[in-house]
Structure to design on (591 residues):
């Protein structure tokens, strides 16, 4: 990536409507859209394309300049693979051609307008695109009765289950307000990126006081209600990965590059592991691990208890949250820990065998010593697996590359943590279900699903609704003991598409992506009755809805807690000529 200069001093985001902060002229957009995909330097700058930041239909997204894996297709994407429209984005449905001028105040009623055939044709030309493959979503609110951080991951559903793990439910923390109508709390302008580059800005967390978001070579804490900057942690290089989980005392972990990429040196590797204190807004320490004389470039990072674990093709390592090394790769190892799933337990995906006879060992391990507690050996030929949940233990894999939709999932494996025995295997054909996992290197980055009540919650693929041009879908539940559907179903409603975000005790928190004339919703789904309760509904004005629908739950970060919804992007790119203002993050809240 051509080296971007340090971002200019950024004024705290202003509350209220979208648009430039008061007293500042609108920013002039850069000239070309970014390449869209994870992890690596982009090729020659692409030609301007419709729909900012997204490649044209039929083009596999390219990886960000300066990240590992340059020149490789995205996960589940073969070279030349024709990408399908993103989840919730069908021709003629719900996705704007570009961001509209963002001047009205948030919460302003109105918007919409009659949906006609000409608009359907225009929108259809834009929405048939491949979206950026993003990371997970994180939630770390300390409002539980036991006073501990709730590290349940957002749209992935997390790697820690909720409920009693026997099919029963416990009450949730999130309560319906008297009026679920939301307003825009604040918006964070997208950082300046130059020279046609794309920079990873993955990672966001929610604490009692702050909404915390990664920027370009920095982590920033914002006031949850007004968006004012509370603190900033500068970094020497871009963030590579961010942990989904947070310790009970508010600490989490990130991976980052030791310097900003340049044309001469497009990647410095993701060798730097840091622990940050989300409450204090401080970086507590940075560590590296070597194999021989070379620094290991890590692919993933997670937190379980007080252990921070990182994985790579060179093996895994772990540190106590205080900075003490717990284990690292051994020269005599014939297998290696490709990565870990964290949360309530620590689970390793260990790779053994030669390249053409690879076997994955799913190991529940002691987070303090690394000792193996139980192990399940997957069938040979399954090269990649993702940890969906560590308690109960659920693993996703694309067996025989049979998913066919680039989702990385054909089957789920429910495994007993104590014995390592397979409880059941759940078939989830890509043409029927919409969950996604990035299991090549990221290990626990799955979204559009959740695990709780000893059940797996999945959204169905979209299908025609009852209205003209409308699309819709449902969330269904699978029993992790029998592998069968429970019969529970949550309908999105005509024109909406629904996605699981996370568990809230025994309840399921879900996001409803809106049709062209409504605002999005957050609902709580009762774990027993599957009755839906509306917790939040965003404004339906054109300007607000256009920004909301530019961030989708499968390719962006969604956090919801205590009546507030935060949406953010995982890549920052230069903005194409003629486009309106872009946003790194936006917050919504009920009164």
């Amino acid at each position: 990536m051509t080296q971007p200069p340090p971002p200019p001093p950024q004024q705290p985001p202003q509350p209220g409507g979208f648009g430039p902060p008061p007293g500042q002229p609108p920013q002039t957009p850069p000239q070309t859209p970014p390449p869209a995909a994870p992890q690596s330097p982009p090729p020659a700058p692409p030609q301007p394309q419709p729909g900012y930041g997204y490649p044209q239909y039929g083009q596999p997204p390219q990886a960000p300049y300066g990240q590992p894996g340059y020149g490789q297709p995205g996960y589940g994407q073969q070279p030349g693979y024709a990408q399908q429209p993103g989840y919730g984005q069908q021709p003629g449905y719900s996705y704007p051609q570009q961001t509209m001028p963002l001047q009205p105040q948030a919460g302003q009623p109105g918007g919409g307008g009659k949906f006609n055939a000409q608009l359907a044709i225009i929108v259809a030309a834009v929405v048939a695109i491949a979206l950026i493959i993003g990371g997970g979503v994180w939630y770390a609110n300390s409002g539980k009765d036991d006073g501990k951080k709730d590290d349940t991951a957002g749209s992935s559903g997390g790697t820690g289950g909720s409920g009693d793990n026997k099919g029963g439910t416990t009450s949730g923390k999130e309560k319906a307000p008297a009026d679920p109508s939301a307003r825009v709390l604040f918006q964070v302008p997208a950082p300046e990126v130059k020279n046609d580059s794309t920079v990873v800005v993955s990672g966001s967390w929610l604490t009692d006081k702050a909404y915390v978001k990664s920027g370009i070579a920095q982590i920033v804490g914002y006031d949850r209600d007004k968006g004012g900057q509370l603190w900033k942690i500068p970094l020497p290089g871009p963030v590579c990965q961010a942990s989904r989980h947070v310790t009970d005392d508010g600490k989490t972990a990130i991976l980052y590059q030791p310097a900003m990429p340049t044309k001469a040196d497009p990647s410095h590797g993701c060798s730097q592991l840091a622990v940050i204190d989300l409450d204090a807004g401080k970086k507590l320490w940075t560590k590296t691990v070597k194999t021989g004389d070379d620094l290991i470039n890590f692919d993933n990072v997670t937190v379980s208890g007080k252990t921070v674990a990182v994985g790579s093709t060179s093996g895994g390592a772990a540190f106590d949250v205080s900075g003490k090394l717990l284990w690292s790769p051994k020269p005599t190892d014939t297998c290696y820990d490709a990565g870990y799933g964290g949360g309530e337990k620590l689970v390793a995906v260990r790779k053994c065998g030669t390249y053409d006879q690879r076997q994955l060992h799913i190991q529940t391990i002691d987070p303090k010593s690394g000792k193996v507690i139980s192990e399940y050996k997957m069938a040979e030929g399954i090269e990649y697996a993702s940890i969906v949940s560590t308690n109960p233990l659920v693993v996703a894999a694309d067996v025989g590359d049979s998913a066919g939709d680039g989702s990385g999932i054909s089957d789920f494996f429910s495994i007993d943590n104590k014995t390592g025995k397979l409880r059941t295997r759940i078939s989830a054909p890509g043409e029927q279900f919409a969950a996604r996992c990035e299991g090549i290197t990221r290990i626990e980055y799955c979204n559009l699903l959740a695990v709780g009540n000893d059940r797996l919650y999945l959204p169905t693929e979209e299908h025609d609704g009852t209205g003209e041009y409308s699309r819709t879908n449902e969330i269904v539940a699978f029993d992790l003991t029998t592998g069968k559907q429970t019969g529970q179903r949550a309908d999105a409603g005509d024109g909406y598409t629904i996605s699981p975000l996370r568990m809230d005790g025994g309840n399921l928190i879900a996001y409803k992506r809106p049709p062209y004339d409504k605002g999005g919703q957050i609902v709580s789904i009762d774990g027993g009755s599957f009755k839906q309760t509306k917790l939040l509904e965003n404004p339906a004005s054109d300007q607000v809805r256009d920004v909301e629908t530019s961030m989708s739950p499968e390719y962006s970060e969604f956090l919801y807690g205590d009546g507030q919804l935060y949406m953010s992007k995982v890549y920052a790119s230069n903005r194409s000529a003629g486009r309106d203002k872009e946003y790194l993050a936006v917050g919504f809240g009920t009164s």
About this structure: The first strand starts at residue 182 and ends at 189. The CA atoms of residues 359 and 379 lie 7 Å apart. The domain at 117-188+200-590 is CATH 2.130.10.10 (Methylamine Dehydrogenase; Chain H).
